TrEMBL record:
Domain of life: Bacteria
Protein's organism: Propionibacterium acidifaciens F0233
Protein family according to the UniProt entry: Belongs to the ABC-2 integral membrane protein family.
Name by which UniProt lists this protein: Transport permease protein
Keywords, ordered alphabetically: ATP-binding, Cell membrane, Membrane, Nucleotide-binding, Transmembrane, Transmembrane helix, Transport
Keyword field contains Membrane: yes
Coiled coil segments of this chain: none
Molecular function GO labels: ABC-type transporter activity; ATP binding
Membrane topology term: Multi-pass membrane protein
Residue span, ABC transmembrane type-2 domain: 52-291
Transmembrane stretches, start-end: 51-75, 87-111, 132-156, 162-184, 196-217, 269-288
């Protein structure tokens, strides 16, 4: 008896991945359409049944600025000792508003979208990154207001000061997203993480030279504490914004050593802040990728 010929099927090499796991933040670039849909959803949810909508992007920082300006500028007299203190303060406030919004929302967004995550699989990193996009939508109107005021008082930036704005923007965006990935992962397993996020956002404005000048820290704290203070990437980001939006408006009015931002800002502290921010982002991405396969089951 002759055996029937056996059909041969060409071997194929397929890559298998653990269920619920992807390539980390690299998946965001390959899913731009989904990212835009999530951003649209977050905006719609936030302003559902709202009369003013995105106008709140102007109202909230305006009220925040007014409160801080009266408390620090008028009551404590900082407005008298520092030229264009309003610009100095608002330059730092826009940095902190960007950080707190990205950090706070990205740390909560996984739990907040638990029902969707349990139903279908899509790259989980899209959710924290969408928080970054939404925060940018609120950030740039504030920068526009700052620019208008700057132009009124005679802002004349150099190329390096424009670069300072871009680099400061990158530092705060990356650092906030990095911490959001870390605490967003922790929040899935330990809901107490939200309390730590609230605490950090509550004190972070006071841990950087937003309402006061960095020289007050240098003249008060011991050297090791000042060094630790400068290692905070947000301190560098705030000082870069001061250099970009405030420094050129007071140059010549008071001595350079009094008004100028931190020494070695560009040569030392900016590279350090960039390394720390992107290093934290790498750690956050690895941590997020390691645990995201368990998100649906924990939620």
């Amino acid at each position: 008896m002759s055996s029937s010929p056996q059909s041969t099927v060409p071997a194929t090499h397929l890559e298998f991945h653990a269920p619920g796991q992807g390539r980390g933040l690299r998946d965001v670039f390959a899913n731009q359409f989904l990212l835009k849909r999530i951003v649209d959803k977050e905006i719609q949810v936030r302003y559902r049944a709202s009369v003013l909508g995105l106008v709140w992007s102007y109202i909230k920082p305006a009220i925040q600025f007014a409160v801080y300006f009266v408390a620090m500028g008028v009551f404590l007299g900082l407005n008298k000792g520092l030229p264009n203190y309003a610009i100095y303060m608002f330059s730092g406030i826009v940095v902190m508003n960007l950080f707190t919004e990205v950090f706070g929302n990205s740390a909560r967004i996984i739990v907040g979208n638990g029902d969707l995550i349990k139903k279908i699989y899509l790259p989980r990193e899209l959710f924290p990154v969408s928080s970054l996009w939404v925060a940018w939508i609120h950030f740039f109107p504030q920068v526009a207001i700052l620019l208008v005021v700057d132009l009124i008082v005679g802002w004349h930036p150099t190329l390096m000061q424009l670069v300072a704005f871009v680099v400061g923007f990158v530092i705060v965006s990356v650092f906030a997203l990095a911490l959001g990935l870390v605490f967003g992962t922790a929040n899935v397993f330990f809901r107490d993480s939200e309390n730590f996020v609230d605490l950090i956002n509550m004190v972070v404005t006071w841990l950087s030279p937003v309402l006061y000048m960095w020289v007050l820290v240098a003249n008060t704290l011991p050297h090791w504490a000042v060094t630790l203070y400068k290692f905070n990437p947000l301190t560098t980001a705030v000082e870069l914004f001061h250099d970009a939006f405030w420094a050129s408006t007071v140059n010549g009015e008071i001595p350079y050593e009094v008004w100028h931002v931190m020494p070695h800002l560009f040569s030392s502290w900016t590279p350090i802040a960039l390394v720390l921010s992107f290093g934290t982002l790498l750690v956050g991405d690895l941590l997020f990728r390691h645990f995201e396969g368990k998100f649906a089951q924990e939620l």
